[in-house]
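Q: Here's a chain of 207 amino acids. Please give me its 3D structure as tokens.
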Amino acid sequence: MIIRAIAILLASAAVATPAASLAAPTTASAENGKAAGAFIADLSQRAYAVLRDKSNDKNDVRAKFRALLKENFAVTDIGNRLIRRHVRTINKQQYQAYQAAFPDYVVDTYTDNLFEFADSELKVMRTVPRGTRGTIDVYARVTRNNGAQPIDSIWTVKKNQNGKYVVDNLTVAGVNLSLTQEADFTAYIQKNGFDALVQFMKDRKSA
């Protein structure tokens, strides 16, 4: 589920809107909220530009979205979170194989679905500081021109070790996607084993 949600939300055209922290207790937190909202708006705009470029074939789109994902998502942290119950039971080679497969799995599984949302718009509604570690929730709404119900989402962003904002989690329509995907991965591992999950991720390619 988290994979499809990433595809939907990245494929939405961002519209420029002021992003303000609800709490805004200090000038610094207000500025951080504004920057986090601008980061999400810019990320969505860049993704939309890829879809609208008619010179891109499917492989080009996949490659460009993979680059966006690796640059703008906390891929390693997200991947770790999804298998946190199993980290102590796997070896170094299994872990490395999983982390190597995870980014491509995210992109390759749902590249085709991106094109369905080329007519969408993402509007940043507000930002809210989360805790004391600089994490910020960016509230956004995705609308489509076909009259479908809007999709409300919360992008949890943080700064990486280089001081750049990255997406650390998504909540869509009230569903925490990391928790949902973690449950899916756990169920698969319990039934088939960890190595089978990694192989499944490698084999799950878009046609």
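Q: Can you summarize the key feature?
A: The beta strands are 13-15, 120-130, 135-144, 151-159, 165-172, 175-176.
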